[in-house]
Amino acid sequence: MKPSPYSKKRNELLSSFPSFIWLVILFVIPIGVIFAIAFKAADPYGGIGEEWTLSTIKELFNPIYPVIFWRTIYLSLISTFIAILLALPVGYYIARTGKRMREIFLVLVIVPFWTNFLIRIIAWKVLLHPDGFIKKILVTLSLADPNSILLYRPETVLIVLVYSHLPFAILPIYAAAEKFDFSLIEAARDLGASRFQAFRKVFLPGISSGIVAAFIVVLIPSLGSYVIPELVGGASVEMIGSKIAQRSFVDRNLPHASALSALLMLAVFIPLLFAALWQRKAALTGKFK
Amino acid sequence: MDFLIFENISKSYGSNKVIDNLSIAVKKGEIFSLLGPSGCGKTTLLRIAAGFEEPDAGRVILDGQDITNLPPNKRKLNTVFQNYALFPHLSVKDNIAFGLKVSGFGKGKINDEVERYLDLIQMTDHASKKPAKLSGGQKQRVAIARALINKPDVLLLDEPLAALDLKLRQRMLVDLDWMHDEVGITFLYVTHDQSEAMSISDTIAVMNKGRIEQKGTSVEVYEAPRTSFVAAFIGDTNFFDGEVKSIDGDYCLLSVESFPDIRVYNDKAVKPGGKVYLSIRPEKIGISHNKPSEEKINLLKGKVEEIIYLGSHTKYWISVNGFRISVIAVHSTFMLDIKEISFNDEVYIYWSLDSCYMLEQYKEEDEALLTLPDDEILDQETV
């Protein structure tokens, strides 16, 4: 018997029901809780006050925040941009190489994840330490002053952000490049395009879905990063993640931390919304056909 | 004038020699076909011309200039790819404009030219569509326009009709021929389809195992095949081998297989005692119940083993002393009025002394090309 459209629709709803419940319980409700707590006051023992209040929100206008927010956004955007820029040739190369080498390269991209994230960041701290390996090389090559400090600078945070998020940029770009029809590059070259023109006018539009995905999966963890600025940025290069951690662990002020989180969430949500709209528009114009 | 010249080209992939010291020249303005089975190196040769592959040895010369080491974008050659390779993110119009855009032409000039070529391929109404929305034939025409708009010295076509169905293929073949006359550009056409090559080409080069077996007009390669490969790959044929008994003016008398002696035009100037290989096309052999009255023919007697009636003609397999000969009788009369030749009949088969052709080179493996499955014969019939 042929299923009626109604029963088909019912089947779809039924089968998506468990994941829907999962999302509501573990995602929608907690987010709602965080937004709600932002409208409470902290009690002196680190708990959450009874009363509804706007005082926590008002504290967000503290003059230290604009600087930190701005730093969070520009460091995240620049690190995302650099990560994608680095991931493009890597993804292109992995997709074009032979099957065997491709598997080796993919493992190499993933291998860093086998080491704990915290250890890897602390390793950077060791490398960049005033007596560390990198510092010594730079001084030997007289590229750095012996008295200069490599740690606790925005550039350092940027480098480590790019380092830790690069695999997240490479993987979606590789996935898109792997599906890309490379005979199109030949066609472009045949029609008179230089290597760079073929890359820009044919390859980049061809893997745009991968670039959008890479942008999202790198930007979001960058915006929320806390360990990296904390360890290699220190007090002089704080990001909003560091502040949220301070408010909850040091000040024991959960409402304030929640308010900051809510604000960050909005900052994450807006680019996501744009990306989704852009992708939808592209899908409607047949770009991903 | 020789316009595009391949000079002693060799190319190997690992230990596999794809092109073996090959030299050919394409004349300006002609349609030159590279015809051969898959894996014969014809596509590799085209890719060497386009600049996608580098030959291990040899030179490619275009209009007197050595282009062997030029990158693809610096060659005045454009390719129509087998799978079309249209840019999926660009409209028909932007696909066609691509070459002019990357060459930095002005907007006005680009628009005028694109209009002209859209008109040439009759796609003006579809200018803003994306390739995904086009039919196979339309994609094909866009691919051709996209290449032609750059006014290449030579247009390279890599099996351009292979992805189309039969009817469309015939139409596109006519269109291609018409476009060739319209733009006057030299075409280098790669195909494995002999009927396609014969119908469109000024010159055909038959390729096998990385070498040119024979180069000539369609009629030359069909009527006077140099090797057993050419004879068997283009159309169908019968092979005999024999020994020269005596020379009789322009003709020689041969003892062939277990047949009575036959006479053949001696264009190869063979001497008595020499071994010769012959090819004769099935349609050049007559078949009849009655002994034919003509003089100057070779006559054999045999038994009908198989009959395939195909409307315009009938294909017979005749066994002559255990040797199977394929015969095609083309029908120019009303068949119902004629006494039919049927299975197991004793028949005479005969051919003119000039119809048999001596091969320069014979390889036994080429006989495998002759045993065509039935449906393939039927396919050819509809062409």
Helix % of chain B is 10-25%
Reported by name, the CATH topology of chain A is MetI-like fold
Q: For the residues shown, what is the average pLDDT of chain B?
A: 90
Helicity range of chain A: over 70%
Total separate domains of chain B: 2
Q: What's the Cα radius of gyration of chain A?
A: 24 Å
Structural class given helices, strands, pairing of chain B?
alpha+beta
Which CATH first-tier class of the largest domain in chain B would you pick? Alpha Beta
Quick overview of this protein structure:
Chain A is built from 13 helices and 2 strands. By secondary structure, chain A is mainly α.
How would you explain this protein's 3D organization?
The complex is a heterodimer of chains A (289) and B (383). Chain A is built from 13 helices and two strands. The model of chain A has no long low-confidence stretch (mean pLDDT 88). Chain A is flat. Chain A has helices at residues 5-37, 55-59, 64-96, 99-110, 117-128, 133-140, 154-179, 183-190, 195-206, 208-223, 227-233, 240-250, 254-284, and strands spanning 40-42, 48-52. In chain A, strand 1 and strand 2 form a beta hairpin. In chain A, 30% of the residues are buried. Chain B has two domains: 2-226, Rossmann fold; 229-382, OB fold (Dihydrolipoamide Acetyltransferase, E2P). Chain B has helices at 42-50, 92-102, 107-120, 136-148, 166-183, 194-200, 218-223, 228-233, 374-382, and strands at 2-13, 16-27, 31-35, 57-62, 65-66, 77-80, 154-158, 186-191, 203-208, 211-216, 238-248, 251-256, 262-265, 275-280, 286-288, 297-309, 313-320, 323-330, 346-352, 357-359. The longest helix of chain B has 18 residues, at 166-183. At the A-B interface, helix 8 and helix 9 of A face strand 6 and helix 2 of B.
